[in-house]
Amino acid sequence: MELGSWSLKISFLLVLQFVGFARSDDACRDMVVGLMEVQMKNIVPCIKELNLNSGKERSDSYNCIMKCMLTKAGQLSPAGEITVLQSIISLLEMFPNQYIEKAFTEVQKCQEFAGQNMMDPNDKHCVKYAPLLKCGVEFMLNVCREG
């Protein structure tokens, strides 16, 4: 099974995203790296849960894997909606006080997705989640950026 190499590819993509962290505070960057490490632990369980056996299946189902990871982290409800209260609680728990204001400013950019029902039984590859996932990645990249 190629789960290890697929996880390695995802990890490589995350490392590439950290290029944007070049001008960021070390403590904030370390905090975000820790958060991403926690999220990464759900990749293999999600791949198994979604029964994705080939590299192509995993690649085609990237959005579904990310959705599964967010659900396991409590950021999405089982119905596939953003759990706003849990997201706020998570921000308060994860971010030191000096980063809370910036975190709330950045997370507000994703607010348009709150309360939206993105579940679609015909959306085999979870394409409707792509804008939300993109917003989440941008949040992770921007929360530590200076300026």
Q: Which tags fit this structure?
A:
147 residues, disordered N terminus, PBP_GOBP_sf, mainly alpha, odorant binding, Recoverin, domain 1, signal, 61% helix, 8 helices
Describe this structure in words.
With 147 residues, this protein is an all-alpha fold. The chain has a single domain (3-141), classed as Recoverin, domain 1. It has eight helices and no strands. It has helices at residues 3-17, 26-40, 43-49, 55-60, 62-72, 84-94, 97-107, 130-142. The radius of gyration is 15 Å and the shape is globular. It starts with a helix and ends in a 5-residue tail after the last helix. 18% of the residues are buried. Mean pLDDT is 76; it is low at 1-8 and 18-22. Residues 1-24 form the signal peptide. GO terms for molecular function: odorant binding.
